[in-house]
Specification:
The complex is a heterodimer.
Chain A (H helix, E strand, L loop, with lengths): L17 E6 L3 H10 L8 E6 L7 H9 L4 E6 L10 H19 L6 E5 L5 H18 L3 H13 L9 H11 L3
Parallel strand pairs in A: 1-2, 1-3, 3-4
Helix pairs in contact in A: 1-4
Chain B lengths: L1 H12 L3 E11 L2 E7 L8 E2 L15 H7 L7 E6 L1 H12 L8 E6 L34 E3 L11 H10 L3 H13 L6 H5 L24 H14 L9 H5 L6 H16 L27
Parallel strand pairs in B: 1-4, 4-5, 5-6
Antiparallel strand pairs in B: 1-2, 1-3
Helix pairs in contact in B: 4-9, 5-7
Chain lengths: 178, 294
């Protein structure tokens, strides 16, 4: 039995799931530019738009791992370019500490990555996505965390657990049933 | 000790303070916190190697704060602290949780405390934090008692453990910590005892959405312990109370100490050392390192 069923592509090979928290003002626009410029990058990244890289709480990242992400990217405006003047400066301090903490706890550095991508850097966006995807392909599926997730959902099935219930909805959406 | 009692009595009789938060002896090797509002009770106060609790934690509690609130004025609160606990007060003042002018800080020249109640005071039973103590002399206290004595020297076992853990591979560390966190029973004693965990409503108590599973399953334990450690990063003053309070002996202060190291290495910041500095995560420097950012 292949435990990574959900993450397999049409040819049966494992594909990483990556969640990207990108800021509305720079990286999201950069991603848009990458699209309109028709740059190619791997389709593994699921983008979640937030208003500022400083608005990403570390629990978002833990939640992403809990829902089966193999890696997370957080990306925002370059320093001094923040729409809210100082959001990314605050974020930078926080991420330095959080990165050190996760490293000490034993989560590989490749699993959580950070970047600054401006609205004009469509190419950089494509490059970063490619690099992050390759890094995570190299370290492989996040088995240790996914083992905890499976054990958890075995004890607390999604239907009994309001916090998990939207995953069921999401699955239906992905399956084309809803 | 007599001087301390006399001083506390004066404070209460003159009406300058509403209450004195201090230690009282329970048995030969055990003390407990006591909140004194009656001047005659000041004879209970003690200061010795068995004063383990960090009494700063009471300063953020609403019921204790209410003691000092009178109809038309706010009285002060007097608190007896070890020099290391004084750092928690500094951190709380920095974070605008308490005001310096509403406090009387009574401290003493500390020469180390025991690891836990029931141990007699010999170098072997010295608390882990005391072997690396850098705050033996109080900085911000109104009154300092006791003579200056040397802290008995011991090895820094905690640092050795940090290095040992740091040298393992990522997978081994994950294994080590998930095994340790697996023991967690979500009693939140670490949160209750921590002077810097003062949020009125903790993120683990929030249910819509539920960010951190509240059942003591390994997944929820993992996220709780990461969040706890992260929320104390660059803030923890290393009083070690969480370690002492944890009924399952999870090495909480190992992670806290590691994060204190990281904030010192990355930003040259030590929590609770200076009232003049802004807090680490509440401020920023445009010259912070861009190393981890692509």
């Amino acid at each position: 039995m292949n435990e990574m069923n959900d993450n397999n592509n049409a040819y049966g090979a494992w594909e990483p799931k990556i969640v990207a928290f990108v800021c509305n003002w720079c990286t999201y626009a950069g991603a848009d530019l990458a699209g309109t410029s028709r740059y190619k990058y791997p389709p593994n990244m699921k983008i979640i738009r937030v208003m500022c890289s400083g608005a990403v709480d570390p629990v978002f990242i833990i939640k992403a791992f809990e829902r089966g992400a193999d890696g997370v990217l957080v990306s925002g405006c370059h320093p001094n370019d923040c729409h809210y003047n100082a959001g990314n400066f605050h974020a930078r301090r926080r991420w330095d500490l959080f990165h050190a903490l996760l490293d000490f706890i034993g989560i590989e550095k490749e699993r959580l990555q950070f970047s600054w991508i401006s609205a004009s850097e469509g190419k950089k966006f494509a490059d970063v996505v490619t690099k992050v995807t390759n890094d995570i392909k190299a370290v492989g599926p996040f088995k240790s965390y996914q083992k905890m997730n499976r054990e958890f959902t075995a004890v607390f099935p999604a239907k009994d657990n309001p916090a998990e219930s939207d995953t069921a909805v999401l699955k239906e959406v992905n399956d084309g049933r809803a | 000790m007599e001087e301390l009692r006399r001083y506390a009595k004066e404070l209460l009789v003159s009406g300058e303070v509403a209450a004195v938060i201090g230690y009282m002896q329970v048995s030969e090797t055990r003390t407990k916190p006591v909140i004194i509002i009656d001047p005659t009770d000041t004879s209970l106060l003690v200061l010795n190697e068995y004063c383990l609790n960090n009494l700063t934690v009471y300063l953020t509690r609403a019921r204790i704060k209410a003691l000092a609130r009178e109809k038309d004025k706010v009285k002060k609160l007097a608190v007896v602290v070890k020099p290391c606990d004084e750092r928690s007060i500094v951190a709380l003042i920095q974070e605008n949780q308490i005001r310096r002018d509403e406090l009387v800080i009574i401290s003493f020249n500390c020469h180390g405390v025991v690891r836990d109640f029931g141990c007699s005071f010999v170098p072997d039973t010295l608390a882990a934090k005391c072997s690396v103590c850098t705050s033996a002399a109080p900085q911000y206290s109104d009154k300092i008692f006791g003579e200056v004595k040397e802290i008995p020297g011991t090895d820094d076992k905690q640092l050795m453990k940090i290095d040992e853990t740091g040298n393992k591979s990522a997978a081994e560390r994950f294994e080590f910590f998930s095994k340790e966190f697996d023991k967690c029973i979500k009693c939140y004693a670490c949160r209750a005892v921590c002077p810097l965990c003062y949020c009125q409503r903790c993120i683990t108590d929030k249910t819509i959405p539920r960010w951190i599973e509240s059942s003591s399953h390994s997944r929820g334990n993992f996220s709780w312990n990461i969040v706890r450690a992260f929320h104390l990063s660059g803030r923890c003053t290393g009083c070690g109370e969480c370690d002492r309070a944890c009924p399952m002996d999870i090495p909480l202060s190992l992670i806290n100490r590691k994060m204190a190291q990281a904030s010192k290495d990355l930003f040259g910041y030590e929590s609770g050392k200076s009232l003049e500095k802004a807090t680490l995560v509440g401020s920023f420097d445009k010259k912070d390192s861009d190393e981890i950012f692509m």
